[in-house]
Amino acid sequence: EKAVNLKKDLAEMQEWMTQAEEEYLEKDFEYKSPEELENAVEEMKRAKEDVLQKEVRVKILKDNIKMLAAKVPSSGQDLATELNVVLENYQLLCNRIRGKCHTLEEVWSCWIELLQYLDLETAWLNNLEERVQMTESLPDKLDAVNDALESLESVLRHPADNRTQIRELGQTLIDGGILDDIISEKLEAFNARYEELSHLAVSRQIALEQQLQTMRETDHMLQVLQENLVELDRLLTSYLTDRVDAFQMPQEAQ
């Protein structure tokens, strides 16, 4: 009777493993939304816990069959053969569910990381847009233009590492058919805004550089003119002091 019960337990265990394999491993998943992906991750975590909890039951079966084999070798031998098959299938099931759970957790982590990089780069784009807008109504002063140019250039020196991560993470998920529509839409919007603002910022940078150069040249010309006027004033003052008649001087002095 004990052998019959153990045989029944082995059959039930094998049936449960078959159902678990169909439910958790053979089901086709399509992760088209973050909610679907997150639910799949949580489901696989529960599946992993469920399967690992059966380890106690498997151990009890194994111990009982060993005890029976010690008492009734003939019955125990048949059960031991079936047990080996169940143990092998159980270990395989554990490994496969662990693997799938790990894969889904990595995919979810990849998605979260992509969102974090997009948030960082979006904040940078907002900052860049603000700096560009600040250059559109500057006072006509050398210091103001120079400060605006330096401020814009400091933002443009932003490293490209984050954009590289966005491109690689997005492509990895899209290649796996995971959230591909959502990610493609996000990347398209981000890249379009990045290209537009980058070109606008570089154009403003060039315009400010040219404006600054013109203002410096004008400032230099005014400085030279001022120095010449001071020198001329000094010269004319000396003429007046010496009571020199203008008609006695060269034409340019007159």
TrEMBL record:
Highest taxon of the lineage: Eukaryota
Coiled-coil annotated spans: 3-64
Database matches in InterPro entries: Spectrin/alpha-actinin, Spectrin_repeat
Gene3D superfamilies: 1.20.58.60
Record keywords: Coiled coil
SUPFAM superfamilies cross-referenced by the UniProt entry: Spectrin repeat
Protein known as: UTRO protein
Upper lineage: Eukaryota, Metazoa, Chordata, Craniata, Vertebrata
Gene: Utrn_1
